[in-house]
């Protein structure tokens, strides 16, 4: 977690990702994280007030140039870090092949200074000893360049695509109407929070399903310039492409697609929403689905939904494999033998349910949804 994340700053960018990557690289090289402590609060306090120890103090085998690159990636202020992941990756590549004499020696040699007056650059006695760091640094740098930012980049498409990171920002800042272009029941079972859904175009077979352009136009009040972002079931799903083409033909001017779709949203730890009719459908037909009641134990004992398991919000702590979540993994409340199992979280409020759902998604459960209402509303939905 970067310092700006720890302080609740909403204006996050790639430099926060660079800090996180720097933490991973630091631990790979040093064998321990840059910050540790007995509690999450203690670790956050150290992140905000201390600098990590130099890598070469812990591991003399780490090249000085690589030490400097990692230290810059962990700078407390975003302005002091690398501006982009590409810049960070390039710095890592240079650091892994730079002579041990350092950049000062290299600049002096390049400028024509008398080499007999300069210390000779010290190279590692065996390149094989440096190779693991080269591989680790370059692999991490290249992997980071695509984290949360991939697009399919397909040729011949009439609309631009957005990445997962861009979609998160669009939703947070209400920059566009986000449309789930799937049939209503599929939307009701599991949709991206904040997304809307409209009826199908009449007379279209299910194999060629497409939303009704007239309904979309009504949704935006006839504003053909209103920003729209469409998604469906991933890279091979044609629903969002078909609707895009029809919207452009109808005169809409600002249509983009999140073609990676809901599978990738989930893969990056995103939770989804289950609506009332979706909740009824799942609990009636999916015998493997797990229902989590996030209310406190006393409320749970006072009455819950059929088959619900209690995972109190107060026991869900920041961090992984701790608190009530860890106990639920060990005692069978959570499906440890199949992380693709559908998990639905209900709570005293939508906020309570979403918090627990998000915590479970960060525990690598891949299909987590929350009910966007109160416990009483969920119970009433099942009673219909």
Which short descriptors sum up this protein?
Oxidized Rhodanese, domain 1; 18 helices; Transferase(Phosphotransferase), domain 1; 384 residues; 4-stranded parallel sheet; alpha/beta; 5-stranded parallel sheet; 3 domains
Structure description:
This protein is an alpha/beta fold and 384 residues long. The protein has helices at residues 3-6, 14-30, 40-49, 55-58, 64-73, 85-97, 103-110, 127-144, 164-173, 184-189, 213-219, 239-249, 261-267, 276-285, 297-301, 323-331, 350-361, 375-383, and strands spanning 160-161, 177-180, 228-231, 255-257, 272-273, 290-293, 309-310, 343-346, 368-370. The strands form two sheets. The protein has a five-stranded parallel sheet with strand order 5-9-8-6-7, with helices on one face. Helix 2 (14-30) packs antiparallel against helix 8 and helix 6 (85-97) packs antiparallel against helix 8. The model is unreliable at 100-128 (pLDDT under 50).
């Amino acid at each position: 977690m970067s310092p700006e994340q720890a302080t609740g700053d909403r204006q996050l960018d790639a430099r926060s990702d660079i800090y996180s990557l720097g933490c991973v690289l630091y631990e790979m090289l040093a064998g321990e994280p840059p910050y540790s402590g007995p509690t999450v609060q203690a670790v956050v306090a150290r992140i905000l007030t201390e600098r990590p120890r130099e890598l070469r103090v812990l591991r003399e085998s780490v090249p000085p140039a690589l030490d400097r690159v990692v230290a810059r990636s962990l700078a407390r202020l975003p302005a002091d870090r690398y501006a982009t992941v590409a810049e960070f990756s390039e710095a890592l590549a240079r650091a892994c092949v730079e002579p041990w004499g350092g950049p000062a020696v290299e600049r002096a040699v390049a400028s024509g200074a008398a080499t007999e007056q300069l210390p000779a650059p010290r190279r590692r006695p065996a390149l094989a000893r440096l190779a693991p760091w080269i591989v680790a640094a370059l692999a991490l740098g290249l992997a980071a360049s695509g984290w949360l930012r991939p697009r399919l980049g397909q040729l011949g498409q009439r609309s631009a695509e957005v990445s997962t990171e861009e979609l998160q920002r669009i939703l947070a800042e209400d920059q566009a109407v986000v449309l789930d272009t799937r049939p209503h029941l599929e939307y009701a079972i599991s949709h991206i929070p904040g997304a809307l859904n409209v009826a199908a175009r009449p007379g279209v077979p299910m194999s060629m399903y497409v939303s009704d352009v007239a309904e979309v136009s009504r949704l935006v009040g006839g504003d053909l310039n209103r920003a729209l972002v469409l998604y469906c079931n991933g890279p091979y799903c044609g629903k969002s492409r078909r609707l895009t083409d029809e919207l452009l033909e109808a005169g809409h001017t600002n249509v983009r697609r999140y073609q990676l779709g809901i599978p990738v949203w989930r893969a990056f730890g995103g939770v989804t929403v289950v609506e009332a009719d979706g909740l009824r459908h799942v609990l009636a037909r999916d015998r493997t689905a797990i229902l989590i009641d996030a209310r406190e134990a006393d409320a749970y004992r006072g009455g819950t939904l059929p088959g619900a398991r209690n995972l109190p919000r107060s026991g869900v702590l920041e961090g992984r494999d701790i608190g009530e979540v860890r106990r639920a993994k060990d005692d069978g409340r959570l499906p440890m033998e199949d992380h693709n199992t559908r998990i639905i979280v209900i709570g005293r409020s939508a906020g309570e349910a979403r918090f627990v759902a998000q915590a479970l998604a960060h525990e690598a459960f891949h299909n987590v949804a929350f009910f966007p209402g109160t416990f009483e509303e969920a119970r009433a939905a099942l009673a219909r």
